[in-house]
Amino acid sequence: MSSSDFAQRPPWTRPGFIAAAALLLVVIIAGVLVAVFAIADNGGDGAGRAPSPGAAPHGSDAPPASDAPQALPTAVPTAAPADVRWELVGPLAVPVSATAGPQQNTATTASGFTRTPEGALIAAAQLTARASHTLGPDYWQPTIERQFVASADRDRLLAEYRASDSGPADPGSLSQIAGFSFQSYTPDTAVIGLVQRAPSAGTPRYHVLSLTLLWRDGDWRMQAPPGGAWISINRVTSDLTGVVEWGPR
Questions:
Q1: What is the spatial distance between Cα 204 and Cα 208, in angstroms, rounded to a whole number?
Q2: Model confidence at 105, in pLDDT bands (50, 70, 90)?
Q3: How big is the CA angle at 130 (ends 80 and 134), to the nearest 5 degrees?
Q4: Which residue in 56, 76, 115, 167 has the fewest CB atoms around it within 10 Å?
Q5: What global pTM score does this model have?
Q6: Exposed, middle or buried: residue 50 (CB in 10 Å: 0-12, 13-18, 19+)?
Q7: In angstroms, rounded to a whole number, what is the distance separating the alpha carbons of residues 15 and 21?
């Protein structure tokens, strides 16, 4: 074939054009493959979005983040809580803790206790004192109505208080907190033996009130004693075996 015949041929039939076109096709195919693999690495949506929160990064051995709530503390104190100060509510001394509560106070009520054994203990002492009939209705009425679990026993306790015409007691005749013992504890229910020292010139006597507190509506609330009678959960003893001594000094 003469050189003039080659020059007369269409350009797409020439060997150089064909080689260049083949090379361009290879480049295009390679680009398509790179794009396909990139889409697969980004979750298949082609948008290049970052992995969703909680998912482990691609190629990482890190486990996905957990949405499970943190476990609540359940270890009951075996010694007197260290960060407690004692304040007077009328003639009764009550504990206050910067970490366990109460966090909200009015002139006559205290609330906002932590969902911990220490929070339940502080609540037991505070609510028992403020529910004392000797402090008067400004204290016991809002405490029992708002911070005791609604029940027939609670209503009976309120009725007994309202029917009583006894006046304020002599401060020297009132029992004061002397210790505690946890009978059982879960983040929903605490049963605490609150020990109170009875005024006595002779051998010390103690009242142990077996108090039940339930976690309701974001706070610890007291369960009223059966029949609305405190004596039903009261035990008198002179033996403090197994009791953690705790009280105002």
A1: 13
A2: very high
A3: 120
A4: 167
A5: 0.72
A6: exposed
A7: 10
